[in-house]
Amino acid sequence: MHSDRIRELLESVSRGETEIDEALERLRMLPFEDTGYARIDHHRQLRRGFPEVLFCQGKTPEQITGIARRILEGGSDLLATRCAPEAFEAVRADLPGAVYHEEGRLFAVRLSPPRENGLVAIVSGGTADRPVCEEAALCAHYLGCAVERHYDVGVAGIHRLLSSWERIRAADVIIVVAGMEGALASVVAGLADAPVIAVPTSVGYGASFGGLAALLAMLNSCAGGVTVVNIDNGFGAAYAAAVICGRPSRR
Amino acid sequence: MHSDRIRELLESVSRGETEIDEALERLRMLPFEDTGYARIDHHRQLRRGFPEVLFCQGKTPEQITGIARRILEGGSDLLATRCAPEAFEAVRADLPGAVYHEEGRLFAVRLSPPRENGLVAIVSGGTADRPVCEEAALCAHYLGCAVERHYDVGVAGIHRLLSSWERIRAADVIIVVAGMEGALASVVAGLADAPVIAVPTSVGYGASFGGLAALLAMLNSCAGGVTVVNIDNGFGAAYAAAVICGRPSRR
Amino acid sequence: MHSDRIRELLESVSRGETEIDEALERLRMLPFEDTGYARIDHHRQLRRGFPEVLFCQGKTPEQITGIARRILEGGSDLLATRCAPEAFEAVRADLPGAVYHEEGRLFAVRLSPPRENGLVAIVSGGTADRPVCEEAALCAHYLGCAVERHYDVGVAGIHRLLSSWERIRAADVIIVVAGMEGALASVVAGLADAPVIAVPTSVGYGASFGGLAALLAMLNSCAGGVTVVNIDNGFGAAYAAAVICGRPSRR
Amino acid sequence: MHSDRIRELLESVSRGETEIDEALERLRMLPFEDTGYARIDHHRQLRRGFPEVLFCQGKTPEQITGIARRILEGGSDLLATRCAPEAFEAVRADLPGAVYHEEGRLFAVRLSPPRENGLVAIVSGGTADRPVCEEAALCAHYLGCAVERHYDVGVAGIHRLLSSWERIRAADVIIVVAGMEGALASVVAGLADAPVIAVPTSVGYGASFGGLAALLAMLNSCAGGVTVVNIDNGFGAAYAAAVICGRPSRR
Amino acid sequence: MHSDRIRELLESVSRGETEIDEALERLRMLPFEDTGYARIDHHRQLRRGFPEVLFCQGKTPEQITGIARRILEGGSDLLATRCAPEAFEAVRADLPGAVYHEEGRLFAVRLSPPRENGLVAIVSGGTADRPVCEEAALCAHYLGCAVERHYDVGVAGIHRLLSSWERIRAADVIIVVAGMEGALASVVAGLADAPVIAVPTSVGYGASFGGLAALLAMLNSCAGGVTVVNIDNGFGAAYAAAVICGRPSRR
Amino acid sequence: MHSDRIRELLESVSRGETEIDEALERLRMLPFEDTGYARIDHHRQLRRGFPEVLFCQGKTPEQITGIARRILEGGSDLLATRCAPEAFEAVRADLPGAVYHEEGRLFAVRLSPPRENGLVAIVSGGTADRPVCEEAALCAHYLGCAVERHYDVGVAGIHRLLSSWERIRAADVIIVVAGMEGALASVVAGLADAPVIAVPTSVGYGASFGGLAALLAMLNSCAGGVTVVNIDNGFGAAYAAAVICGRPSRR
Amino acid sequence: MHSDRIRELLESVSRGETEIDEALERLRMLPFEDTGYARIDHHRQLRRGFPEVLFCQGKTPEQITGIARRILEGGSDLLATRCAPEAFEAVRADLPGAVYHEEGRLFAVRLSPPRENGLVAIVSGGTADRPVCEEAALCAHYLGCAVERHYDVGVAGIHRLLSSWERIRAADVIIVVAGMEGALASVVAGLADAPVIAVPTSVGYGASFGGLAALLAMLNSCAGGVTVVNIDNGFGAAYAAAVICGRPSRR
Amino acid sequence: MHSDRIRELLESVSRGETEIDEALERLRMLPFEDTGYARIDHHRQLRRGFPEVLFCQGKTPEQITGIARRILEGGSDLLATRCAPEAFEAVRADLPGAVYHEEGRLFAVRLSPPRENGLVAIVSGGTADRPVCEEAALCAHYLGCAVERHYDVGVAGIHRLLSSWERIRAADVIIVVAGMEGALASVVAGLADAPVIAVPTSVGYGASFGGLAALLAMLNSCAGGVTVVNIDNGFGAAYAAAVICGRPSRR
After folding, report:
1. Is the pTM of this model over 0.95?
2. Which residue of F has its CA nearest to H170?
3. Which of these three, H109, H127, H160, is where a domain ends?
């Protein structure tokens, strides 16, 4: 569409219907709105294939509500992550239809019909990683993927992982969520033939240094095909998974 | 196939053709050979979809030759990375047919016909990143992808990137290779609708801390869909890209 | 036993009492239960010689209670570490028989008779290290060792340590707990002929960097025979000590 | 003036009006007052061209009020940064005329007429960076510059930045405020011909390590002309910008 | 000029002389050449006010010669930094007119007449910092500034700095180069009313950690108006200084 | 005395008044008491020249009271550092005669007459460093030194320091307390001929990393004669200063 | 024996055969020799159960020869680690009987008959870890243990490890040697009931940071019973293993 | 003397013998010479009590010779540290009388008669620390102290230290040199009543991180009175020791 609009503009110039100066100006302008604190990018859905996702952390309730409304008024689905329960309480009255998921700390308003472009498996190493797992699982769901959860199949009892393997290997993308030493990513990637996205978590203490140990372990995975996102970034992993799952249908 | 062989074994037990103790033993045995210094995993091609790749760094010429021959004798293609020119000189006589790529520091012996499962774009921010770019490009090629190189389209002159964009956006996976501040990954991911795999490089000096600055920048990318591999790990990015490209055809 | 059960299964297949497909399935299945948030590994006591230990930090009271009950219902002793007083208050009504140790932040339910497989000495460098010391001492006790406490025998007054030495050297394993500069581990290991397990603590300020200084010092100990666990990981040291103490009797 | 006063003193010595010992003593004395907790430097405005700025963080209300009054009594404008709302509440009664800016966490008392020595553009990558942006914008204003704000023009949607570019490039100094990966500084500096001062922010999570990722990225910027200040140091960037803007008029 | 060419293109479309599709294509094209390994940005001089500077480190002699020639053929002055003596030996025959400065590790070819847009003072804390000082001084010179060198006026003998102060304070921009503890930047900035750009150097040993100590000290300077560039980045400081010096004349 | 007591013991053995076994035992015993949580070292005053100092952080009120009483009952002066106001409130009733200093967060009970073995100057760079300064000043006082305070003579206004210099240089030991970039230590040491002990403080933000920047700067001081203690360790600096001051009189 | 000698001395004093002063002196003397550069501790074998081990790195050939001879002349076995081939060449003529192991970089002279106190399994994740593995294996051998090597059973192909498991689990102590992400330690410890000692290696590149990634992963192992030694410290792991193996026989 | 010269100048002004302008100028001038690369501070000996020490690392032979000659021509003793053997070879012909100490990597020319202001003990933990020990010992010697060496009395065999204690405790200042875990500083300071200056060394490997482990351990010493210098900074420790030793005689 972007190219189409430029073409239209050029055609209009060609027909003499648009002045040179005006065309020059409009060529520099891509549509966005300015809410005063955040320019929302309606083009994003076209350009990237997904709506802009609202990251709530560090924003005031007024900022969250304002951005959320504009996204919805633009006709897009809304996905808002890193939203603490109190923050959602402060905005829920202004966003009717918003569904809040407490463990995943996110809310969503779905306008479009659900899709299931591919299957994403969320594989996890410990109960304390659940919030990150749920952020990944729910984001993958809202971004259009089918999701299966395989929590607590950590490497300290490798037989648990092996017993779940037949299901896990059916996935199109495997998201491995693990804190502490992050070894699960390597073990899973050594068995899998699907892309593996590793999410280090800040779960741990002492020399885990807020997730640094798991992050470094995952980056150094001896098993090929592992890529890594930021510590605790369940959304980022889900987003990348959804992009991968969505590829074939887009060609 | 693995399941098939277990099934066969159970059937043989069921028919009384195999002793219990022998079955017990064989159930634990998965085929591998022991060269004395490295067990080669011929099953890998079946399990992961790609042959084992030989990482030469830290290995003696004898070890490289030994492992390479076993892989080839097993009928697999051979891809050997991080091989310095002197190391290749020391093994080339023993590996007829091996093609060495100096800039990418790797060699390969291809037995199977080339495939082009998908298109991988290598996007790069500087001349000094070339060796990592070439490792990524050549590995993607040998792992069965078509490859396009877009080198030196860094963010310090954003117009260069924009002018190449129409080609880049056609790719199934975009690998962004950048040292220094690694900003290129965010800019590309902000424009792209394909999966973006970021490779930080150790190019830089001072506070780049051997690639740490680029690594952290890429992990913190404000643009969704970026996943990251280890510093200078062109192979890792290519491997992940090949896994993603190969998925659709495998379903 | 694991091998025995597989043998039984194979024998059953051999006798035609079990179908191939069922055997195939059961070969992949190792017994575990799924509570919805954490799969409990009853086999652990068999495989590792100790029951699974419940790490409470980061878990909700419901999760703690749920996992604890399953462990107890499986007939194992229960040991639950890193449990804050408020967390224990929230679960104590549901876990009759649980004994809470405030300084060591753990609780236990003992079903089996106490054992004293060997003697573990806990040697400590400061009053502020007491919680970690007590975690180590109590865990070692519940995991079946006799325990002696030698607290506040730090290197700043080496004569204190020397005056307690005759007792300390009688131990089968010596656990050294120290924050700040962690020098106690080296001094003890220089004198001891028993295995020394060092636990760095996060006690200190400024350039102790949350225990990093003590951790690095212990890893670099100039005295042989020192092995190290994570910062503040009293449990880990006790577990390793119990494994060492339990070895001779198991042979 | 400093040299003038020394000259006067020497002349007085020359005329025999001042004793040698007294002159010796006065040569060592530069005028300052001692409030008991902070010596205020009235000479600063002469020496550096700007009044001393009061950094409130870590100071008690009594200390803030005391220092602020002395500055005002010395006839200087007052600019007080890093002042939390509660801290301002505690001092506002004692500082009539003080204007508080909540988002920028600073207050000011202006005695001199406003100046607009040059134009400073504040360019920002995200809503959560607003407090740092406002600190920079307001400090630049009080230090005598015209200010334009271009917030939320981050690199994840490069078209937003490009569409604002015509305004941004008119600035005499561009201050780029960005957390996470800090890529905005490189993109802006690649386009700009004005000095670019980069302010990394502590906005982010996980591997942003409190702004370290953005700081390193900015220091490694591949685009020339970028200089960097401390994490979250909006004031420092504004001060440097004001020094640059004020230069031409001072010659 | 850029806008002019777009205007011309639109006018040509308006006159019917250019096809829509061709215009669409050319709108995306900005002029650059592709040497195979590095696209040279001739527009840079227009956009940023300075020619592209060639960073030689990590480039082969062929790459250096190739890029250098293109820059010269484009009519720009050439400045090539981080060029080791051996590297210059390898390219000097191909670049007649190139002048090499050994201490500053750079070479240049000047086509345009020298300018002296402003005065840059290079202030330094130690003999071992000389290479970085010279890189800064020579780059500032070639980028069109007058330069004064004040080397070895470190804080360990503060009187040396004070005795040179009258000269230093005449500068339009002060570049402070210091390794070890980097205190010189704060002392200079406390006295100066010109912009101070601090360059930490990797000179030092032990806990200087390759310049990290000086870098952190400079970022935390208690004196306002200090901005910082990467460790050993004499060029970056000179570039920023030249941009600042060039501003007034450009308005 | 230690040697004397061993001599006495040997003489007693020689005279047949003490049994061999008893002597053997007593040779290993050095006098200390065991309060259950901390062995107090009454010998310390003899061995080290100062009483044991009680570090309150991380200790319960019961532990503080218990240790404090034993020290006092042993006839020593009491100095208790890092004691928060609430902690002192909880123990004050049990420790009559204890004097609390809020800014220095310490309390003391003096039994011996005050001494002034030497003069310690406390030189400081900012109002926010006051708590650490006061800890140093008060500890030096209680450990037997005369103390002079020179606060807020930071490097950003070097003339303030120079104007106080005549007094500072009279000191036997100079303690420099500084956060942020810690440059004050180098400037003072460059001027001084007395030992300089540098105390980095955690005052600052961003890239000060909790005092790390100041610590590294002080360790890398280009001025000879600077030694450094832990971040915020005012007591440590005072203790070392008192040891130095006390030396001459002890010979 | 130590106590016996003191007893003898006291008895001699008691009988009047030894002067008080002489006894006083001898009580302080423990036997050691002074070679001028290193005091050798012949008591060590008595006190710690093993002879002093000679760490060659950083020592001159003269120092190595000198220390080695004294150890041998004292009647102890000699084990000398971290000895590069050239260093051994320089000393071999002076140490007849010394056997050099190139891959493990160590040499030994055995005077006592070999022992096999227990079985140590060396489990390894990669060919490049061989030197560290061999240091561990050979040290364990010379310190009196039987040794089994299981190299290249890394987690990227978990089936290799499982197929070797029956042998590995027979060991008294398992030493796991792994670089990169170090996940092997967790997987092994999850399966094992013997003590697991983890040795991180510096094998890897980029974000392995010289073995830091593996070290952190091992310290954060989610599987109980793992203790850790310094990076590449094969000797340390072997020493600790030998201490553990030797315990039962010593009781 | 400095004050005296100012007084003389003022008297000259008072007598009308010196012009105001000339006096003004000379008041700013402190005597120094400019060799072109390093201003030598002859006043230093007066101000700090010791001559300037020449740090050779990073300087060319010409620079070393030039600075050394000026120091000698100024009538001062010369002490030149961090001078590699090859560097000394290159300058020895130009500096007759210079004595080189290879292990301590320094040379000196003594013009003044030797002094022994106090006794400095150098206490060391390992043979590999010898170069740093010797730098400390020789510098202390040349700066006017008597020196005793107690090398290789590390904590791994605490009895060695105790047996040397009677001599060590006689020292006025104790310099503790230790790499690896640096525990020796705490043990010595716990016993000593003299000032203890700790020098961490870069001896070690793996997690010693070039001396960082020892540095942190020493900064966190639980024994009071320890101050620390930079890694491997034997000179710095000696200089501080000499300043402390020289104090009493200077009063």
Report:
1. no
2. F251
3. H109
Chain E contact present for A11, CB below 8 A: yes
Is G243 within the bounds of a domain?
yes
Gap from C5 CA to chain B (nearest CA, Å): 11
Both D97 and D137 in a single domain? no
Asked if H207 reaches chain G (Cβ–Cβ under 8 Å), the answer is yes
Cα(first)–Cα(last) distance of chain B, in Å? Answer: 16
E175 sits in which H/E element: strand E173-178
Quote the minimal CA–CA distance from E223 to chain A in Å.
30
Of D92 and G26, the one with more pLDDT:
D92
User: Residue B148 and residue B129: Cα distance in Å, rounded?
Assistant: 16
> For residues B100 and B112, what is the distance between their CA atoms, to the nearest angstrom?
18
B151 interfaces chain E, CB cutoff of 8 Å: yes
Task: Using an 8 Å CB-CB cutoff, list chain G residues near B178.
Answer: none
Whether A87 and A151 share a structural domain: no
Residue F215: predicted pLDDT = 96
User: DSSP labels for F1-66?
Assistant: -HHHHHHHHHHHHHTT-S-HHHHHHHHH----EE-SS-EE-TTHHHHHSSPPPEE-TT--HHHHHH
Nearest CA in chain A to D165: A28
- F57-61, F158-162, G232-236: which is most confident: G232-236
Is A55:A49 a contact under the CB 8 Å cutoff? Answer: no
Smallest Cβ–Cβ distance between B152 and the set E38, E211, E232 belongs to E38
Look up the ipTM and state it.
0.82
Q: Does residue E114 lie within any of the structural domains?
A: no
Residue B223 forms part of a structural domain: yes
A window 12-71, beta carbon within 8 A of E: 13-14, 16, 20, 23-24, 27
Looking at the fold, whether C59 and C133 belong to one and the same domain comes out as no
Residues D58-83 have pLDDT tens digits of: 899 999 999 999 888 877 889 999 99
- Domain end call among F109, F144, F173: F109
E205 shares its domain with E178: yes
Alpha-helical regions (H) of B49-173:
61-73, 85-92, 130-142, 158-168
- Residue in G64, G177, G230 to test binding to H, most H beta-carbons within 10 Å: G230
From the list C65, C70, C211, the residue with the least C-alpha distance to C132 is C211
CATH number at residue D153: 3.40.50.1970
Indicate whether A144 belongs to any domain. yes
* F124 close to E (CB below 8 A): no
- For residues H143 and H149, give the distance between their C-alpha atoms in angstroms, rounded to a whole number: 16
Per-residue three-class SS string for chain H: CHHHHHHHHHHHHHCCCCCHHHHHHHHHCCCCEECCCCEECCCHHHHHCCCCCEECCCCCHHHHHHHHHHHHHCCCCEEEECCCHHHHHHHHCCCCCCEEECCCCEEEECCCCCCCCCEEEEEECCHHHHHHHHHHHHHHHHCCCEEEEECCCCHHHHHHHHHHHHHHCCCCEEEEEECCCCCHHHHHHHHCCCCEEEEECCCCCHHHHHHHHHHHHHHCCCCCCEEECCCCCHHHHHHHHHHHHHHHHHC
CB–CB of A190 and G157 under 8 A?
yes
For residue F195, list chain H residues with Cβ-Cβ distance below 8 A.
240, 243-244, 247
Range of the domain at F10: 3-109
Mean pLDDT in residue range H56-65: 91
Q: With an 8 Å Cβ cutoff, are H190 and C126 in contact?
A: no
Q: Structurally, how many domains does chain B consist of? A: 2
The predicted-structure confidence for D84-116, as pLDDT tens digits, reads as follows 999 999 999 999 899 999 999 999 998 878 788
Nearest CA-CA distance, residue E58 and chain B, Å: 5
Residue-wise pLDDT tens digits, A34-68:
445 554 554 455 445 566 789 999 899 999 999 99
